[in-house]
Structure formats: structure tokens, C-alpha cells
Specification:
Blueprint: H1 2-11, E1 14-20, E2 23-28, E3 31-39, H2 42-53, E4 67-69, E5 72-78, E6 83-84, H3 89-105, H4 118-123, H5 125-134, H6 139-158, E7 166-169, E8 178-181, E9 184-188, E10 195-198, H7 203-207, H8 212-221, H9 226-240, H10 252-258, H11 263-270
Domain Aminoglycoside phosphotransferase: 43-216
Protein name: Aminoglycoside phosphotransferase domain-containing protein
InterPro entries: Aminoglycoside_PTrfase (IPR002575), Kinase-like_dom_sf (IPR011009)
Length: 271
């Protein structure tokens, strides 16, 4: 890890364990920090986290000016207190609704570089080519993925100009990105998926196609409009295809999550 060693020398860090992709636990002069390599539009990530921190959310704060490289930046963050817990899904949904209220209050409406809307993601011809190429080695899975993609393209085509609440979203509002101390939220981390889109797109990784109590809890704090209920599944499918381009060897994760069953959404369709 020559580059990590260089960063460690510049900031005089004692390197600890790897705690995530491109993320290390480190110490300096006895104080704990987190070292993270942010790829892509890293300034956007820091901007969103800072805006939410100013509204009272415990987000990671840089301890030094980032060390910029061609594809991103190394950032040294103050370590937030607390530990990962698994709050009840309903509580997590309520918390996400509160976050979205403040996300709109940040006033950030620009799109993050490298991100597109869900309709653009599924309509991209490069995605179709990738899925058809995948079909040469995984015909059954590819057929299922292409059908989901085609259905989602058709849905967005039939709902052009859909009007649903938008804001910046966290992008990965999962239990392992929440820290708690003495029963209170002490950390909201990992803004690598943050961008501007429909707010219900934040359900993609928090709900994951089946954790319906996340939706119920959210709806208790900010009631979802009918158009948002209809939008949940299409933006979820689009999220599954983020980053799928060129030859791909394994889309089993996408297939498994495509097959997740939501009794809540199914019940709304039949009512």
C-alpha cells in the first residue's frame, strides 16, 4: 500500500484496521481518526455532509485539508463516537424522513458529477448491451434482468415529467452507516452514494425491496403521496443497475435483490 504509506507519513498517522472499502481506522498522537479515500466528485460528498452537520446531523468532519489525487482525494476525518447498532426498521424509516426534511432545507439542488436520474439509468443503451452480453453466460438471469429493465423503461416513459419530492439523498441509509451512543444517534457516515434525485430513491438500500417497516415508519413522519408509492419500485430497479456497464461477470446481487418481495407494495397494487 505505497500510497497509503505516503498519506500516513504526511499526516503522521498510525495505521490501524481496514474498516471499509478504502477506509482505515487511524490514530495520531493518541487521538482516533478515520482515513478515507473518496473517489469521483468528493467535494459534493463533503458539501452535503457539511450542510447536514450545520443542521444538527452528526456527520463526519474533515480534520485536515484533503490530499487531492487525479481520481479523488484522501480525507482524514475526526472519528465520531458510538457504535453500529441495528435500530428497528420502523425507527430507521422515521429517521430517514427527518433526514429528508433537512436535506431539502440544505438548498442543494445541483446534481453530483457522474450521477443521473433513474429514467436515464435504465434507458441507457450501454446497460442493455451489458445485460445482453451477460446473457451469453447467464441466460436465465439476463432474461430476468432485461425484463425488469424494459418494464422500468416503459414505466418512466408512461410517467414523463413525474412530480415527486426531490432533494439530495444519503444513498446508503443502512444500519451499518448509523452510529449510536447512549441510545442517541451519534454518527451518520458514508456519503459515497449521495446525489440529487427523488427522495424515495433513498429506499433502494434502506428498504432493499422487502423491509417494509422502513416504508411504514417513513410514512408516519412524512406521508408519501400516491405518486411516490408508485415510484418506489421503478427507482429501486434503476438503483440495482447503477454502475453496470461493459462486460460483467456476476450480477447475482442484482438478481437476488430484484426477486425481493414487498407485501406492502403488493397490497397497495391489489387494493
Amino acid at each position: 500500500m505505497p500510497e497509503v504509506d505516503g498519506v500516513r507519513a504526511i499526516w503522521r498517522l498510525d495505521l490501524g484496521a481496514v474498516i471499509g472499502k478504502g477506509t482505515w481506522s487511524v490514530r495520531r498522537a493518541g487521538t482516533a481518526y478515520v482515513l478515507k479515500l473518496l473517489i469521483g466528485d468528493w467535494r459534493y460528498q463533503l458539501r452535503v455532509a457539511k450542510a447536514l452537520r450545520e443542521l444538527g446531523w452528526p456527520t463526519p468532519e474533515p480534520a485536515e485539508e484533503p490530499l487531492i489525487r487525479d481520481d479523488g482525494a484522501w480525507v482524514l476525518f475526526h472519528r465520531l463516537p458510538g457504535r453500529h447498532e441495528e435500530p428497528a426498521d420502523r425507527d430507521r424509516g422515521r429517521l430517514l424522513a427527518e433526514l429528508h426534511a433537512d436535506a431539502r432545507a440544505t438548498g442543494i439542488t445541483e446534481q453530483r458529477a457522474g450521477f443521473r436520474g433513474p429514467a436515464e439509468v435504465v434507458a441507457d443503451p450501454a446497460l442493455e448491451r451489458s445485460l445482453r452480453g451477460y446473457g451469453r453466460t447467464h441466460p436465465d438471469e439476463a432474461r430476468e434482468l432485461l425484463a425488469a429493465r424494459d418494464d422500468t423503461v416503459a414505466w418512466f416513459a408512461g410517467h414523463a415529467g413525474i412530480d415527486a419530492p426531490r432533494s439530495v439523498i444519503h444513498g446508503d441509509f443502512t444500519p451499518w452507516n448509523l452510529l449510536y451512543q447512549n441510545g442517541r444517534l451519534s454518527g451518520l457516515v458514508d456519503f459515497e452514494g449521495t446525489h440529487h434525485t427523488y427522495q424515495v430513491a433513498d429506499f433502494a438500500l434502506s428498504w432493499r425491496g422487502y423491509r417494509d417497516d422502513v416504508l411504514r415508519g417513513y410514512d408516519e413522519v412524512r406521508p408519501l403521496a400516491e405518486v411516490e408509492w408508485a415510484l418506489i419500485r421503478p427507482v429501486y430497479v434503476a438503483w440495482l443497475f447503477l454502475g453496470v456497464a461493459g462486460p460483467v461477470a456476476d450480477l447475482s446481487w442484482q438478481v437476488a435483490h430484484l426477486r425481493k418481495h414487498s407485501a406492502l407494495l403488493d397490497g397497495r397494487k391489489s387494493s
